[in-house]
Amino acid sequence: MKVGVLGGGQLGRMLALAGYPLGLRFRFLDPAPESPVEELAELVVGRFDDLAVLAQFPDGLDVITYEFENVPVEAARHLARSAPVHPSPRALEVSQDRLAEKTLFASLGITPAPFAAVDSFADLEKAVGEVGLPAVLKTRRLGYDGKGQMTIRSAAEVVAAWRGLGGVPLVLEGFVAFERELSQIGVRGRDGDVALYPLVQNHHEGGILRLSIAPAPDVSDQLQEQAGTAVRMVMERLDYVGVLAVEFFQKGGELIANEMAPRVHNSGHWTIEGARTSQFENHLRAVVGWPLGPAEAVGHSAMVNLIGEVPTPPRVLAVPAAHLHLYGKKPRAGRKLGHVTVWAATAAERDEKMARLRGLPGCLV
Ligand code: AMP
After folding, report:
1. What residue owns the CA closest to ligand 1's atom 7?
2. Which residue from 56, 118, 258, 277 lies 20 to 30 Å from 195 (Cα-Cα)?
3. Ligand 1 atom 9 nearest Cα
4. How many CA atoms lie within 13 A of 155 on its CB side?
């Protein structure tokens, strides 16, 4: 079986690394010649909207998926005429638009932060009245890692936020004074079978994920059930195939849905060592139509992103049960260059090992 993947970043690289033992082969499409998949798989360098490239790409492929959610929906629809595309272009479309995403959550009874669409300054003033302050103004499309958003703390900041972001479709959402951020990753097969990973606790800074703790500590059965049901409902509504991640804020006993990603997710990297089947393997099993693997956690894991610079491998590997994943990317400030997962049988031991990573280059935890 040969899988086509739109996007050739680190997520694609980890998909390929998970797929080779299953006998899968890969072809990637990415506009950048120096992509993390370049050294390990066939890479077509081309634009996602180049019709000549899209005409050639599906040749000999059994299924097409993506590892980057800003692939143009039209490209996914175009390719779907030649080969099955999973998750569906519809799922891609919803997750590219924060307004569509929140509307979907709300329609399923999954609570988002209060929100309002903003297309003009008058809309923004009205939305501030409805949603209240503080609030976060976000671009509806193409925002990631905290880009394309501004917090409005007082009425005096409304004009500046409009100047900073106005001109493209926006959404204003209430600022959530959350206690912590959690994510729920699930996978759904072509036959509708679903596997759910445990809730993960995430720490972001400057909008970039720094650390994931898995399973998240102090999760009641009810909270886990609520998150799992939410992901299951989204997947069923979209007739979804593949891995889906939904990010939540927790405030008291309540989960507030922030956004979803129709792909393998940074907060699921721990599953490579810390779950019975990694999110990468399960995504591939789902999209090619094979049985899913069990998603339970084995022991306790922590995943630390390496941002901007990387430590030398021996410094990481000196920590017992630390696993290093480098993405083959050139160092640049703020860039995700790799990650480290530490694994232990108990949470206390895991925290002890994680503490030993502090201060290593790129480990900003
Ligand atoms: P996003 O791009 O929506 O994932 O936002 C990036 C990060 O900004 C989140 O992980 C939060 O840490 C923070 N953030 C986003 N939206 C809100 C909100 N409505 N209230 C509080 N913090 C937020």
Report:
1. 207
2. 258
3. 207
4. 3
